[in-house]
Amino acid sequence: MMREAMLYEKKENGRVTCNLCAHRCRIEPENRGICGVRENRNGILYSLVYGKVIAENVDPVEKKPLFHVYPGSKSFSIATVGCNFHCIFCQNHEISQMPRESGSIMGRDSAPHSIVERALASGSKTISYTYTEPTVYFEFAYDIARIANEKGLKNVFVTNGFMTEEALETISPYLHAANVDLKSFSDDFYRKKCGARLEPVLEIMKKMKELGIWVEVTTLLISTLNDGNDELRHIAEFICSLGAETPWHISRFHPQYKMTTLSPTPVESIHRAAEIGKASGLKYVYSGNVPGDEGEDTTCSHCGEHLIDRYGFYIKKLALKGRSCPRCGTALDGIFSQHS
């Protein structure tokens, strides 16, 4: 179904400006924005994906990845088609790029209250807006999030962070956590590989922290493109400036979409990046896409005690006393109860 968009401005001659993401698209009548799912019809901007669910799964929350939000719990995960980025290494390009590449809007009709009912029935503690960029289906996510919040569920965005402050402030009363994909610390990388810009992502991450949203950061490490020591140090130092408690997930690249000629990232590069993160002062640095690696585990930032042992997205051992280290009593940062 279509729904009139939130956060847009009507301009002269039927044009509109969309203020959901940092592209701030100026959209001519009968045209769509960069995301491919917001269309100007006679001077009114519509979301074409409201209620159109293309993916719906019950995932481990660790898959987002979120390691400090109800560890070991389930997260009811949804998406519509569309994205405001065009990353040439996208692992979900079949659905994220569908509207841009084929013009198609596919998905199963589902109402916000039905999503929340299924999330509760699944035993999930969170609803994750993921797989594609939640900003492009903002109205749908917003309506679900408000109902979910009333029912005691937490809401999670898995996002590229390219939203506007207006959008973030609108959703923030109902948004409890976000994993932000910090793809590089190079604006050139963002422009050439993703069709976007770096600075808005950095600014929105700062704003999330100011608003009290729990933030974890993921960087997909791609050999020769964003894995230099200086760039990794800049990323780690920026994350640390948000707060040393901010987890950094360093994920291993595998050939995808339009980037199939590069080899998978060497595991040694993941370990090198992790050491840079720790040396920069981050409390929690994790290896991604390296199942069985000790870098997936959570240790106490004070005494080094192993608190959570993981294999991939699954927890082998959870040794917390409430939310604290059983050895020294140091609290683990994150969301571990309905009130944290």
Question: How would you describe this protein?
Answer:
This protein is α/β, with parallel strands linked by helices. The chain folds into two domains: 3-47, no CATH class; 52-296, Aldolase class I (TIM Barrel, Alpha-Beta Barrel). It contains nine helices and 19 strands. It has helices spanning 93-96, 98-101, 112-121, 138-150, 165-171, 187-194, 199-210, 229-242, 267-279; strands spanning 3-4, 8-10, 16-18, 26-27, 38-41, 44-47, 52-53, 55-60, 74-79, 108-109, 126-129, 154-159, 177-181, 214-221, 248-252, 285-288, 298-299, 306-311, 314-318. Strand 11 (126-129), helix 4 (138-150) and strand 12 (154-159) form a beta-alpha-beta unit. The longest helix is centred in the last third of the chain and has 14 residues, at 229-242. The mean pLDDT is 96.
What is the compact description of this entry?
This protein has helices spanning 93-96, 98-101, 112-121, 138-150, 165-171, 187-194, 199-210, 229-242, 267-279, and strands spanning 3-4, 8-10, 16-18, 26-27, 38-41, 44-47, 52-53, 55-60, 74-79, 108-109, 126-129, 154-159, 177-181, 214-221, 248-252, 285-288, 298-299, 306-311, 314-318. The chain is of the alpha/beta class.
